[in-house]
Amino acid sequence: MINFDYLTLKAFMEENIDFLIDSRLQKIQQPTRRDFLLSFRNRSDSKKIYININPTYFHLCFTTDENIKKRDIILPKKPPMFCMLLRKYIESARVQDVRVPHYERILEIDFKSSNEFDENINLTLAIEMMGKYSNVILYNSDTKIILGCAHNVGSEKSREREVAGTIPYVYPPKQTYKRDILRHSGEINYETLNEDFLGISKNFQELVKNIPLEKIKDYVELKNTTPSIAGNKFSLYSELLDSPILQDSVNSMIDNYYAKEQEQILFKQLSLKLQNITNTKYKKITNSLKKINYQINKKNKGEEYKKYGDLILSNLYNGKDYTKSITVKDWDNNKDIEIPLDDTLTLKENASKYYKLYNKSKDSGEKLITLANEMTSEKEYLEQIKFTIINAESLNVLKEIEAEISDNPKPQKENDTLIDSVMINGFKVYIGKNNRQNDIIVSKISRGEDYWFHTQNCAGSHILLKVPDSNEPDEETIYECCKLAKQYSTAKNSTKIGVIYTKRKFLKKPPKANLGYVTYKNEKEIIVGD
Fold first, then answer.
1. Taking the model in full, what pTM does it have?
2. Class of domain 1-174
């Protein structure tokens, strides 16, 4: 990931200074401890500045609603204390000036505000983009005294510079060992530009290798910028990138790049979290199922108990009461067997004891079989969940899965779910990417004459072929849908797999069944190969 550097910050400021100056700060929101949304309005135009001081992807830009969704920004019910402080001092205040101190990764916004006595006061919001030291600080422009900050920096964290309320605001220590590249002439070492000159980041150093000094100076002076993105890189100059995609503005470059990076990071984090939760549940239920199956096999001795009781009763006159065992003829196997007895009981009482053990074993076995069936169903459900997590393609799909497996699921609106669809020979075909989408496909989207497809005996997506006005699909369309079911299943790499299909009217969702689970009848099967 490219770090947000001085040149990018300065280019952003120069591009947007005309809008910011004389604008009014209408709303202040702080979704988390490390990010902020500031809504500005200038004349008839409104924009939101997004500030992120996370050490991994610190940056700031005007953002769009689309990119706010990508960042998964959720506002808390109760705003943090620092947010309340900002609202108290600068909400509704007007911007007087905006600047980036020379070679500093700090954007300073000056506000004209008023205090509780209705006296005019000058305040400055300093947004510091400095890696793990990134911060948002509000201070009095006249006295330089800090009113508050996103996070305090005490002497135990930094020996060079403390940041906290009631102490003076000072800039970070100057890097006196570095020079101004605009005043430099002569040879330069391309491997140490970042260490030798002010305002040069390591990423910029990598991009300008072997470029003449005068051209580098043009870049530093931000002459003729062409903001672009190429894969996991961005640059203010498209010629420094391979296969660049030009952006509308510096702001668009920042917003689009970091929104995508944040979405990918959030996607990976949530995917890993859900996999850990599901794997833990799957391991637990698999172990429980093994133990229950062991008990079921053990309970199969019930028939042996019944046999012992029958043999004892048929040999009452050949044996003796109150003995430790009796030897009888097992006519089924044509051999003599010895049956253990309780020597405190008569033969009849021993036979009765074995019958009781048989009845107990029979009742217990039936309960265990029922429990094993329930656990097998739950295991198959978790296998389906694991499949959908691994094959999820968007953060929204993962969040739907998270809501499904959460201990306290939040109700979701159906119109919040976007279900993928494709056209096959003029027919619309829906693809369920998780159990919630599978359930919506079956219960809301489908009609009686539509066709439902699913791979046989393995986890996969529900595929629904919509059939309008009894326009029956041909065999080619049916086969293409079967191929789609194979593609979106755990058997996608198999040489061949059976795909079952039937009409929607032959599907049934059992009461209290897991989300997306259905039973079916009148199904047909097609074997799909590579």
1. 0.77
2. mainly beta
